[in-house]
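Action item from last week, closing it out:
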Amino acid sequence: MSSVPPQLEGFRVLDLSSVGPAARASRMLADFGAAVIKVGPTARQGGVQVHPPFHSYGAGRGMKRVQIDLKAPAGVDAFLRLAAAADVVIESYRPGVASRLGIGYEDVRRVNRGIVYCSTSGYGQTGPAADWAGHDINYLAMAGYLACSEPRADGGPPIPGATVADSAGGGMHAVLAILAALVRRGVGGEGQYLDVAATEGVLSLMSLSIDQYLATGEVAGPRQTLLTGRYAFYDVYEARDGRWLAVGAIEPRFYANLCKALGLEQYAGRQLDDSVQDEIRAAFRRVFRTRDRDDWVADLAPGDTCVAPVYSIPELVEEPHFNRRGVFMDAEHPEQGRFRQVGPVLAGGERHQPLHRVRPPEDTDSDVLLSEAGLSPGEIAALRADGIVE
């Protein structure tokens, strides 16, 4: 383990979410060393919050828990006592719900002027779509991501293989905004309210294509631009064994290396010639089908050709490169047993993690956390007796 303190050690985060972009954000903040406290409902309110599978979002790694009935005035007061000593609050209610509960930005700001309060949602806190319900596929659809992807057999947009809107459009968007607000606060500024919309995060990811259209009128649909498969050098190809290779030889030098390695030097000078792209693509397909995927990778990947294997998840978890870099770690659930999971893989995260022992859902840190917030043993006991805190 590194002796260097985590980057966010000393910062405290209250996370009112259980899934989605906000949960992604708090996972990342915890991996960077922030003290993340998951604020969930009590058992009698259990139906109001989605409970993710035990292995999701790092299985609670490095986080503490408190369960509070936020519909009870005493529960709201307990939350605000916790918020008074926090640096960040993250919530993912429908717009306006947190304020109606009495735990919105202005409520927290009254007890903590330095708070960085981050509301995460699909479409933002304002605008005609603000109250729409949605999930990852909806945000990707509205922000143009699906329309730029290769159509499936029936002509419709494909269902993506990753929750890009939740993770990058929402979660990473929230983390970037939170860290920027903390930096601003650290140089003499106050706290800040952050309206994080996952759809707008996807717009940022799509900015190359959107800005291209706004500037030139060129639409980045499937097979229309370089990054959507217009040219043969940016595509996927099937190998002899039925597995696939991804080719991204954009730079002329890398493309020339690829043509030479495939024995297709005649196309090296025609990389951007639209009149022969179908011919080049057919030639690439023919040659790639003469050998197995991993044989191609062994020869091409080290040779500056921008070729990589298309891995399935069972394949990638055994990939020597990832395992050498320590991207996986071990965890153990009291009922499900031992399993591996993705560790703190973002740059600066500590890769060499000890075994994470997953806590039972009913196991909370409520007494300790509320005591640290200034509640007396009698006050905590009364809250427990009334079912307001668990």
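Closing note: The longest helix spans residues 164-186.
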